[in-house]
Specification:
Oligomer: heterotrimer
Radius of gyration of chain B: 24 Å
Largest interface: A-C, 80 and 67 residues
Keywords (chain C): 4Fe-4S, Iron, Iron-sulfur, Metal-binding
Structural class of chain A: alpha/beta
Distance between the termini of chain A: 74 Å
Strand order of the largest sheet of chain B: 1-2
Largest sheet of chain A: 7 strands, mixed
Structural class of chain B: mainly alpha
Largest sheet of chain B: 2 strands, antiparallel
Keywords (chain B): Electron transport, Heme, Iron, Membrane, Metal-binding, Transmembrane, Transmembrane helix, Transport
Radius of gyration of chain A: 28 Å
Number of helices of chain B: 7
Shape of chain B: extended
Number of strands of chain B: 2
Pfam families (chain B): Cytochrom_CIII, Cytochrome_C7
Order of helices and strands of chain B: HEHHHHEHH
Distance between the termini of chain B: 72 Å
GO molecular function, one term (chain B): electron transfer activity
GO molecular function, one term (chain C): metal ion binding
Chain lengths: 793, 184, 252
């Protein structure tokens, strides 16, 4: 025994075993060990939002994507990335991705009812159903909702719906909806306005969430970097906002106003500019219609904006009463804005997901018109069209025409009150018509990349409509709230696995086109949405198949790029230092690509195409041939009212539902750059960065002013119930001195009922308690505030 | 006397037992044990370095421009020459049939494998004139790849270099021994 | 060695964060998580348990509506450069965390860490986090793990490394290109991601480098400078109320 012990001790074995045991203890075999390999980067364009940022995926051996970085050569974001982009691969590898086509075999919404189905069967089933509807002469029974508004996929869906014969294709609501119509009213062109904000020396922002995103987060952050170079304020930012938002905190000056009164302040400033002759008189005289009194085609005289804005309603004292801003401060602002060369007024939400009231749009445009901003070389322009290859002409197939002759459901079914004179993308109106048993039934609804069951303001409208819809077909990558309700799920690639594109940057005046190229092969049994639509069209055959003649989605995009090359316009930004904001309107940009194939190769390699802005006043298609402050289009469309202000920018505020007594507070929701919103769930990386005064465990906090809290007898962290006429949700209270007294603020992007343990049941869904008001002019669902009540839980 | 004898013989017996135990343990500890500790694994394909003498080392084991080292090349590298079979060797046939045509990577067993927490870069070692052979076996004349010995306890290769060896050399060569130099 | 215990050298990696440019977009923090295989859990709202190498703080001027103002303050590890030791390296009983005398990085070896958490107590910046649980990723997300940083295990402390693996990669390239090792430049993931370029990184001992110039800016300050931990992360702010909070003490 002793010998064995001695011998063992003299041999290396015990020491070796001890050492090995130590090593063993350091290597926890259940901990994942990332496979090593060559690290490469693949540039592409991000499609998580519409911002058009250039990104590059870092890959291991070309097989695993480990990080998304900004592309330093890309002119939009110039190397930076937002939190959503940096966490973007968590969508690619999300556990809640849908791995194969699924069919609901039990009751709608039953998660156990989903059964895998082969692709050809799934597509065949959909094609058969659609074929039957057409044979029955009811193609208008097809409806669609898509998230992607600035992409060729959107054009493809439009083509499919037109060829099939349904007028009922909608997009998730966006600020661009109302901006486009404002463009139509003032310039005759249905294009959204853009702002050359990068070079503006003075920015008067009416609640625009500039640093929170404002259409393109990558672009805005890069602009902010320019404004704040070297500790100096190259641009003075004045933020008009009810809450101390990030933009308000980062601004040089924050003007606190009650929610919804931003346009009143804008008109108050306009009043003083007109009164003190601080406006661009030459511009107003030569290029603007309706500043002075005007006569319509019937010979009837109307008052002009100059008269209206000088009425008592817009004096500093009157505006002060509305906004609480001291008259002296309003005078000071008006003087600053009026005299500062190049000053520009901007407006709109961070992620631009809510349309605005038409008169709001017109008021802010009026302020810019007074500055002479809306002209070639001015800060405000119209988004130029991108001359992509056109889609085939539709042959005018009788079955399709029959369906298209049917009015869109929201217009066909009478609503409460008269129909809007200038209808836009009225998804809310449509859903309302469906749930009230509209003029004709919707048998099939396609939802593409959108999650209206969660992300639509007043989302219960979607739920109500769903009960009246025959079949819900989801084209989604994720098992989100909407996909859960689907009868058939056709899972699509994420932007990192298939081709896609971005046409134009929201809020930018220059032309832009970017192609999202796959960075790696799909790892699930998914397809490109375009390919799915094309194969349905093929099965339907005839004129529908002819309308979508491409072999694949990639082929289609190539053809689009070929068309772009054929225009011989614009150039590719394939190296550092392209400054898009320096482009002059109508400037001839020299193409730096050889042909369509060359352009496509470079686009697919992550370079973007750009072209100069257009002169917003060139070839105006308005009745007067001028920029119309007095909207003759509204007159022509039959807009009536007691006085002439219905044709002019003016301040009007539709009071929210409910009474002051039952709901003494106002609820305003806000977007944060660190919380994904609407159609995408917050990835776990981003959830980690959410402050514990916004979310603690599963409790979401509302922000209230300490004074309001003491009136309500509430303290920091108290549990409460937030009630609006739309519903009530449990919340906790965070005392925030940046919150306006009597207003409750709730962050958007939480409160999901789908996905996984990292997302589900965290916080409350703001979309369920906000209130949508249909704009009387356009019918668009606008949101500004809901009356609210907060009580102790 | 008897008792003494007894005790003397007992001592002898005891000594023998002790010696047997001692020697046995030594033999076990030095020779058998260490072998038992490792499992012997064959490489998936017999790679003959000799058969590749028409190429230079750098053709396969090169630095990438970013300073990282290729190590054992991937299947795409093999494919450059072995797209279809060139010779009669059985191992080549396996390479072509099982890996190149099926687009699979060869699961080579790496003799000098280091765990995840170790960062090793070839570039500075090469720059300091460290010869490949000081850490890897000489392979130039090698026709048959040796077995890979895997430690049953730790899963490490028998040839995995230990931290103490790294540290010693770094100390001698006035290299840094701070954490981040070798750990990630 | 100089009399302060520092080796003489031209190299001290440091960071300058311009708070006037920081919009709190969280891209730095997210990029850091992805770059460094930082684990996450279903509930991340307990900030004492949550692992965040780049944590963003929310500072405010203490005033009421509408004079209220706030600023974001991103906080990586300060990579303290105090003579002989940083607070954390001084207390580590097993030498698992050390400061590199040649470049100033404070780094940490996970397998050596015994999880005693003295370093967390010692760190005045709360820059260190402890792995209270086994790091676990949803299965498909294991594909996102970077091989350039090793995943940690339960029971060890971790913190920002200034992306030392990126430095090591840059040094490898310098060796290959026969370039000057003391002139090696690299960018950590946070600075690279920052869309407003609020984060600048480089050699603070090089007066001509961007960081070298920025730390002489009149807006520059460091957090808790009076502790003489010599943090190598500098901040810039034009707001006095922000700068004041950097040296705040708990009022007793």
């Amino acid at each position: 025994m002793a010998g064995a012990v001695g011998g063992t001790l003299l041999s290396p074995l015990p020491w070796k075993l001890t050492d090995d045991a130590a090593i063993w203890s350091q290597n926890w075999f259940w901990r994942p060990s990332p496979a090593r390999g060559e690290i490469t980067r693949k540039p592409t364009v991000c499609a998580l939002c519409e911002g058009g940022c250039g990104v590059q995926a870092r890959l291991v051996d070309g097989k695993r994507a480990i990080l998304l970085e900004g592309n330093p050569n890309h002119p939009v974001n110039q190397g930076g990335i937002c939190a959503l982009g940096a966490a973007g691969l968590q969508f690619l590898y999300a556990p809640y991705r849908i791995a194969q086509p699924l069919k609901q075999t039990k009751r709608r919404g039953d998660p156990t009812g989903f059964q895998p189905i082969a692709w050809n069967e799934a597509v065949g089933e959909l094609a058969k159903k659609l074929g039957q509807m057409r044979a029955d002469g009811k193609p208008n029974g097809l409806a669609g909702i898509t998230r992607r508004r600035c992409s060729s996929m959107d054009a493809l869906l439009n083509q499919f719906f037109a060829a099939y014969g349904s007028p009922n294709l909608f997009k998730m609501p966006a600020h661009a909806d109302s901006l486009k119509l404002a463009g139509a009213v003032t310039t005759g062109r249905e294009a959204p306005f853009g702002c050359n904000i990068e070079d503006a020396p003075y920015i008067l922002s009416f609640g625009a969430g500039l640093v929170e995103g404002w259409g393109s987060p990558g672009r805005m952050q890069a602009a902010f970097r320019r404004w704040r170079q070297g500790g100096k304020s190259a641009a003075k930012i004045v933020q008009v906002d009810s809450r101390c938002s990030t933009t308000a905190a980062m601004a040089d000056r924050w003007i606190a106003v009650p929610p919804g009164t931003e346009a009143a302040l804008a008109l108050g400033i306009a009043h003083l500019m007109v009164k003190d002759k601080l406006y661009d008189a030459e511009f107003m005289a030569d290029r603007v219609f309706g500043f002075e009194d005007w006569t319509d085609s019937q010979g009837k005289n109307h008052k002009g904006f100059k008269f209206l804005v000088q009425t008592d309603a817009y004096t500093p004292e009157a505006i002060s009463k509305l906004t609480g801003v001291d008259p002296a401060k309003i005078r000071e602002l008006a003087k600053e804005f009026g005299t500062q060369k190049g000053a520009v007024a901007v407006w709109g939400q961070p992620q631009g997901s809510v349309p605005k009231d038409m008169y709001n749009e017109l008021s802010f445009l009026a302020l810019n018109a007074l500055k002479g901003n809306i002209k070639a070389g001015g800060a405000i322009g119209l988004a130029p069209e991108v001359p992509l290859g056109a889609l085939p002409e539709l042959p005018g197939d009788p079955s399709a025409l029959k369906g298209l002759k049917q009015l869109r459901l929201d217009l066909a079914s009478s609503q409460k009150g008269p129909p809007p004179v200038l209808p836009g993308n009225n998804l809310h109106g449509f859903l309302d018509a469906v749930s009230n048993g509209g003029k004709y039934p919707i048998e099939v609804m396609l939802v593409h990349e959108a999650n209206p069951a969660y992300g639509l303001c007043e989302n219960k409208l979607f739920q109500q409509a769903l009960t009246k819809i025959g079949t819900l077909v989801s084209l989604s990558s994720y098992m989100d709230e909407t996909a859960q309700q689907a009868d058939l799920i056709l899972p699509i690639h994420t932007a990192f696995e298939g081709f896609d594109d971005v046409i134009g940057i929201p809020g930018a005046p220059y032309a832009y086109y970017g192609v999202c190229a796959p960075v790696l092969k799909p790892h699930l049994n998914t397809k490109a949405a375009g390919d799915i639509v094309m194969s349905v069209a093929k099965q339907l055959g005839g004129s529908i198949a002819a309308a979508l003649p491409w072999a694949s989605h990639e082929e289609y995009l190539k053809k689009r790029a070929e068309g772009l090359a054929a225009s011989a316009r614009g150039a590719l930004a394939d190296k550092k230092g392209v400054e898009l904001w320096k482009l002059q309107p109508e400037e001839a940009v020299k193409p730096n690509y050889k042909d369509g194939a060359d352009l496509w190769k470079k686009l697919a390699g992550g370079a973007c195409w750009y072209d100069a802005p257009v002169d917003p006043l060139k070839d105006l298609k308005t009745e007067s041939g001028k920029f119309e402050l007095a909207a003759q289009l509204l007159l022509a469309k039959g807009q009536t009212g007691d006085d002439d202000q219905v044709y002019l920018p003016h301040f009007s505020q539709v009071p929210p539902r409910g009474s002051d007594k039952d709901y003494p507070l106002l609820l305003v929701t806000y977007q944060m750059s660190a919380l994904a919103d609407r159609d995408l769930a917050n990835p776990p990386f981003m959830t980690k960065t959410v402050f514990d005064f916004i979310l603690r465990q599963n409790d979401q906090f509302v922000e209230i002013n300490p004074a309001t809290a003491s009136e309500l007898g509430m303290a920091e962290g108290d549990s409460a119930v937030l009630k609006t006429p739309q519903g009530e949700v449990p919340v906790r209270v965070h005392l925030y001195a940046g919150a306006r007294p009597k207003v409750v603020y709730l962050a958007q992007g939480l409160g999901h009922k789908a996905y996984d343990e990292y997302i589900k049941d965290k916080g409350v869904n703001a979309n369920g308690v906000v209130e949508v008001q249909l704009d009387r002019v356009t019918g668009l669902g606008t949101v500004w505030a809901a009356r609210a009540h907060l009580r102790r839980a | 006397m008897k008792e003494e004898n007894k005790s003397a013989s007992g001592k002898v017996v005891g000594g023998v037992v002790f010696a047997v135990g001692f020697i046995g343990a030594l033999v076990f500890g030095w020779v058998i044990g260490p072998d038992l500790l490792y499992s012997q694994k064959a490489q998936p394909i017999n790679f003959s370095h000799v058969a590749h003498q028409d190429t230079t080392c750098e053709d396969c084991h090169a630095f990438r421009p970013d300073g990282t080292y290729v190590g054992i090349p991937k299947i795409d590298k093999c494919k450059e020459c072995h797209e279809s079979q060139m010779g009669q060797e059985k191992s080549e046939q396996i390479l072509v049939d099982e890996y190149i045509q099926k687009e699979r990577e060869v699961p080579w067993l790496v003799y000098a494998w280091q765990p995840d927490n170790v960062f090793f870069s070839h570039a500075p070692h090469q720059a300091k004139g460290v010869k490949c052979e000081s850490c890897h076996r000489p392979v130039k004349e090698e026709k048959v790849v040796p077995y890979f010995y895997e430690n049953r306890l730790t899963g490490y290769s028998k040839s995995t270099m230990k931290m103490v060896d790294c540290e010693k050399c770094h100390a001698e060569q006035n290299g840094s021994n701070n954490c981040e130099i070798c750990h990630k | 060695m100089s009399d302060t215990g520092h080796s003489e050298g031209k190299l001290r990696y440091g960071m300058v964060i311009d708070l006037d440019k920081c919009t709190g977009c969280m891209a730095c923090s997210v990029a850091c998580q992805a770059e460094n295989n930082i684990s996450f859990r279903a509930d991340e709202s307990n900030k004492l348990r949550s692992i965040t190498w780049m944590e963003i703080y929310h500072l405010n001027n203490g005033k009421g509506y509408p004079d209220y103002q706030f600023a974001y303050l991103p906080r990586p590890c300060m990579h303290c450069d105090a003579p002989h030791h940083s607070p954390c390296t001084f207390v580590c009983p097993v030498n698992a965390t050390t400061r590199d005398e040649r470049n100033g990085l404070v780094t940490h070896i996970y397998p050596r860490c015994i999880g005693c958490r003295y370093c967390m107590v010692a760190c005045p910046y709360h820059a260190r986090d402890f792995n209270w649980w086994d790091p676990a990723w949803p299965k498909p997300m294991e594909s996102m793990l970077s091989p350039e940083v090793s995943p940690r295990m339960r029971g060890v402390v971790e913190k920002c490394t200034f992306c030392s693996h990126r430095m090591m990669k840059a040094r490898s390239k310098a060796y290959l290109d026969k370039a000057d090792l003391e002139a090696v430049e690299y960018t950590p993931a946070c600075a690279e991601a920052c869309p407003t370029k609020a984060i600048t990184f480089g050699n603070i001992r090089d007066a001509n480098s961007e960081v070298g110039k920025l730390i002489k800016d009149p807006r520059a300050f460091r957090i808790l400078a009076k502790l003489h931990t010599e943090p190598k992360v500098y901040y810039l702010s034009g707001h006095e109320w922000v700068r004041k909070q950097a040296d705040n003490v708990v009022k007793g």
